[in-house]
């Protein structure tokens, strides 16, 4: 009798775990549909997480630990983790904060021997050439925050696709109109999700350029505060590409992609 009860408990536990994992896949897919962001990578990622969780939760030690926890605490754990996984998969961090994607080391990587980078160089009023390191002038921001975001901004300018972005703004306006007409209730919530899917990309080329100039001017002001005797007169952004397969002595392909005259503006 005890054996049967144990088997029943184990089967019930397996059923609950399977239901939890299956619901993770279904709910993730629904949210991906809501945000119009369905593509195979996050869907397969959700399935992979669910399959891993299913087998992980079947481990005897894990099963014993979970089944001995107070039910309210166990529910809180699973609800928290469920939301955590959903927000990771739909990947709209500004909307779902503080539940954000945790894919720093899990993104798909296309290996290449070509390494791209940006170098920030400036000329002082005396004609001296100096290398600018943006992270040194805004220490309250991490190196990854200021440098990565600045590099991404420069990339978005030099690779700006007017056709793609025109379509993006058109869809944004559709979302705005949709949200305005359905404000409130579940329909308004769905429109709000769609609206926020694209918020990080919704800047015109002129706005991106203006924003870049503002950042460079801020960096120049910080530099000049420490070098009042010889302030900066211009800043150049150099895009470099190096083929690392050629070894440490490989020459990089350098191209000037941005010039800001601090007295006259951008060129």
What's the SSE blueprint?
Blueprint (H helix, E strand, L loop, with lengths): L1 H33 L5 H17 L3 H9 L2 H20 L2 H4 L17 E11 L4 E4 L10 H16 L3 H20 L3 H13 L7 H22 L5 E12 L9 E9 L3 E2 L1
Antiparallel strand pairs: 1-2, 1-3, 3-4, 4-5
Helix pairs in contact: 1-2, 1-4, 2-4, 6-9, 7-8
Task: State the main characteristics.
single chain, 267 residues, alpha+beta, 2 domains, 5-stranded antiparallel β-sheet
Brief overview:
The protein is of the alpha+beta class and about 270 residues long. It is built from nine helices and five strands.
As a whole number of angstroms, the C-alpha radius of gyration is: 26 Å
Question: What share of the residues does DSSP label as strand, in percent?
Answer: 5-15%
Mean pLDDT: 76
Class based on secondary structure composition and strand pairing: alpha+beta
Polypeptide structure, described:
This protein has 2 domains: about 100 residues, no CATH class; about 150 residues, no CATH class. Helices cover about 60% and strands about 15% of the residues. The chain contains 9 helices and 5 strands, in the order αααααββααααβββ. A 5-stranded antiparallel beta sheet has the order 2-1-3-4-5, with helices on one face. The protein is elongated and about 90 Å long. The model has no long low-confidence stretch (mean pLDDT about 75).
């Amino acid at each position: 009798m005890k054996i049967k009860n144990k088997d029943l408990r184990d089967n019930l536990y397996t059923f609950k775990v399977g239901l939890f994992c299956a619901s993770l896949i279904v709910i993730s897919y629904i949210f991906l549909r809501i945000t119009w962001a369905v593509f195979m990578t996050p869907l397969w990622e959700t399935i992979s997480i669910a399959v891993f969780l299913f087998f992980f939760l079947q481990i005897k030690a894990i099963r014993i630990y979970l089944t001995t926890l107070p039910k309210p605490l166990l529910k809180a754990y699973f609800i928290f983790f469920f939301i955590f996984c959903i927000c990771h998969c739909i990947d709209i961090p500004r909307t779902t904060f503080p539940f954000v994607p945790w894919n720093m080391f899990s993104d798909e990587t296309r290996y290449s021997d070509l390494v791209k980078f940006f170098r920030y160089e400036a000329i002082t009023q005396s004609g001296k050439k100096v290398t600018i390191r943006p992270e040194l002038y805004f220490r309250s921001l991490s190196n990854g925050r200021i440098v990565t975001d600045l590099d991404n901004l420069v990339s978005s300018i030099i690779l700006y696709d007017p056709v793609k972005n025109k379509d993006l703004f058109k869809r944004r306006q559709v979302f705005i109109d949709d949200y305005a007409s359905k404000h409130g209730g579940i329909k308004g919530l769905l429109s709000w999700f769609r609206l926020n899917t694209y918020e990080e990309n919704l800047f015109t080329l002129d706005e991106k350029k203006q924003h870049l100039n503002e950042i460079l001017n801020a960096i120049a002001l910080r530099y000049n505060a420490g070098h009042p005797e010889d302030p900066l007169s211009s800043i150049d952004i150099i895009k470099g590409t190096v083929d690392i397969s050629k070894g440490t002595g490989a020459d990089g392909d350098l191209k000037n992609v941005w010039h800001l005259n601090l007295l006259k503006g951008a060129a």
